[in-house]
Amino acid sequence: MRTIDWNDESNSIVMIDQTLLPSEYKVIECTTLASLCEAIMSLRVRGAPALGAAGGYGMALAARLSSAKDMDALLKDMQVAAKTIKATRPTAVNLAWGVDRILHAINDAYDLKGIKNVALSEAKRMADEDVVKNRKIGEHGARLLEDGDVVLTHCNAGRMACVDWGTALGVIRSAVEDGKQIQVVACETRPLNQGSRITAWELMQDNIPVTLIADSMSGHLMRKGVINKVIVGADRITGDVVFNKIGTYTHSVLAKEHEIPFYVAAPLSTFDLEGWEETVPIELRNEDELRSFNGKAIAPKDAKVYNPAFDATPMENITALITEKGVYYPPFLLDELFI
Known about the structure:
Layout: E1 4-7, E2 12-16, E3 27-30, H1 33-41, H2 48-65, H3 71-88, H4 93-105, H5 112-142, E4 150-153, H6 168-177, E5 183-187, H7 194-205, E6 210-213, H8 218-223, E7 229-232, E8 236-237, E9 241-245, H9 248-257, E10 262-265, H10 288-291, E11 292-293, E12 296-297, E13 310-314, E14 320-323, E15 326-328
Parallel strand pairs: 4-5, 4-7, 5-6, 7-10, 10-14
Antiparallel strand pairs: 1-2, 2-3, 8-9, 9-13, 11-12, 14-15
Helix pairs in contact: 1-3, 2-3, 2-4, 2-5, 3-4, 4-5, 5-6
């Protein structure tokens, strides 16, 4: 199934619970806005494109659940839901993009039923578009990979981070689909191990060769000449930086030092044309994510912790941006992408 979808029979959001992977593959159901927000904050659903779909479906769910008797009251409920959903993860721009797209779409509705129907149809359209966009990203990016390449990736930018196919892993999947022999080196991505739990699992499901390493090993492999390319996803791209899972910046510095191409694969919905590094809040995660692992203490319980979810990679460290419209090289004039 898709990573996140809508169940027409129960009028609810269904998703793969990513916190259980790889030990258990389980589909869960969100029937309330609170359950969706919990799923987003706990990373049951995660990844920029998937969060965009979650934002859209969340607004559709809010419309269905509203007991409002007139349009003004329903629109007010929708605004409250929008604020609630956006607050769950402030750094990833796709979440707010998905919410705002529904708010814009319902402006054309004329009654209560129309608002609810438009919200759901637009959310479904967004999810369908995500699959098409990711396929195009994969098609464009695959041309950058050569037969025999060993590609390093960080976190998870695969189908679990999207509705389907993936961005960074979508590029790899498309290259393999084209007949190229590609090997992947997946960084574990501490502290929540999206690389080891999800990326390695995804690639093994597709029979794509993958080797798992600790995050701190990437420089060692680059220096030894093992890594040919680096491809990552993105949670927000501004005019000066790419925000992605914490640790991405370190890999970009190492890749630049060793003259290894560093690519970022992301749909245009991840671009924030008005933002800059200083204007974007960095999500701080629970301190216990670093103090414990799988329920066991790995640090003193009162150890001081700093746990940002993302870091910023400056544009000068990026070889190219891969989008559904094509591959873009420096200087990155982001406005031109939307012409």
